[in-house]
Amino acid sequence: MINYDVVVIGGGVAGYTSALRFLEQGLKTAVVSHGQSALHFSSGSIDVLSNSPVDGKAVRAPFDEIDRLTQQMPEHPYSKIGRASVLESLQWFKQFVGNHGLPLNHNQSLENHYRIASLGSLKATWLSQPYVFPLDFDYAALSSIKRIVLVSVEGFRDFQPEIARAKLASMPELEGIEVRVVKVGLDAAGLETRNCHEFRSIDVSRLLRQPQHFSQFCSQLRNVATPNDLVILPSLLGNGDGLTLMDKLAQETHLRFHEVPTMPPSLLGIRVEDTLRRAFIEAGGTLHVGDEVTSGVFRPSGEQLSLACIYTKKLKTVPINAEYFVLATGSFFSRGLVAGLYKVTEPIFDLDIATQGSRDQWYSERFFSQSSHPFLSFGVETNQHFQSTKAGRTLENLYCAGSILPHYDPIAHGCGGGVAISTGYKVAEHVIAKSSLNTIPDAISEQKKGEMA
């Protein structure tokens, strides 16, 4: 038998946000994670709200839009949290990861900014890493750019600069700015056992950690770009060392870089995951990595249910007990939800699911539809405090956070990171408040026992 105050199931942004808040408050906390999270596929930026769930229009001021959601979409996770708490959670997250070596930046106005994506499109976001060049909605930052230089790395096929160049060159906002592609080579002796067409970002990152290869890379970049350029570079540095090598690259070349995420694995996203995991372990958290929860034991608690313990694949018959549990296993991509022929289920505890109609109503007929696919807004039913339900009965100590929640579309609305952080944080606040109240009777009881003795 293993005992914790809180067990968080899932090692993504939502799960770690909750877990780190618990540790800050002195709660004994464990995270059960089956492996790599969706951060390995992410941009490494945090989107709060890019497109309105109400009318689909681009959002400039995301927190103003959250006020509107509260009135028009009360079931949206942001509506349950409220504008002030969403902002509080994001500011906490920004400060926390910054204190652990990963600075994140946003506009002072609290409005969105644009980042240049890997195929040359512009994506609205709210928090970005230091080497993501932020463009305001009025593109004022472009006035300082003489050229946009896209770097093509020989042997690396997960970034297509010619496609991005064509997209950028066609934008009216960039009229008068030269957009060009330059090539740099790699001495692939360190990768000689691999087909050069199979290099991934992590392979190149390992090569560039070697001083001689890094020095050659710097020299080539200095030869093809100037400090007046914006150098768009596929994210190839930072596997295991955070921003150390990117900082060194900027210092040695004196160039202005804009990193774009590549095909998975995305080093920008991995930096976020590494930062959160490292901070969790350093703070004394217990990480059950490479394991997954298989089942739980429920007990009646008045009209509600309580989750007494869980079992995992590795520990088999050894129960993990906790006062509170947080389910942050994600959506379909990470198997937090599973779609059968006629039914969507939550595979661990068989929690109640918010779905819409029969299977033919789960999706739009056209894959690239103007409207989002309904299944993207499916998730586990919860109350206002994100407590889940099973067979219509509320689970008083099992909370849900992140993309396992329903009534929002993280892709179409550009709000995945913001919902993950704000719901993970809000769930933690609910649990912290309840756990502090529950310790008072215990303290009184101990005092009476002492007096009786």
UniProtKB/TrEMBL annotation:
Pfam families registered for this protein in UniProt: FAD_binding_2
Cofactor(s) needed: FMN
- Tell me the pathway: Polyol metabolism; glycerol degradation via glycerol kinase pathway; glycerone phosphate from sn-glycerol 3-phosphate (anaerobic route): step 1/1
Which InterPro entries does this chain map to?
FAD-dep_OxRdtase_2_FAD-bd, FAD/NAD-bd_sf, G3P_DH_GlpB_su, Metab_Enz_Cyan_OpOx_G3PDH
Q: Which GO terms describe its molecular function?
A: glycerol-3-phosphate dehydrogenase (quinone) activity
Q: Which enzyme class, named as a word?
A: oxidoreductase
Q: Which residues form the FAD-dependent oxidoreductase 2 FAD-binding domain?
A: 5-419
Query: GO cellular component annotations, sorted alphabetically?
Result: glycerol-3-phosphate dehydrogenase (FAD) complex
Reaction(s) the record says it catalyses: a quinone + sn-glycerol 3-phosphate = dihydroxyacetone phosphate + a quinol
Enzyme Commission number(s): 1.1.5.3
Which keywords appear in this protein's UniProt record, sorted alphabetically? Answer: Flavoprotein, FMN, Oxidoreductase
Write out the similarity annotation: Belongs to the anaerobic G-3-P dehydrogenase subunit B family.
Q: Which NCBIfam families match?
A: glycerol3P_GlpB, PRK05329.1-3
What this protein is called in its record is Anaerobic glycerol-3-phosphate dehydrogenase subunit B
Q: Say which species the protein is native to.
A: Vibrio maritimus
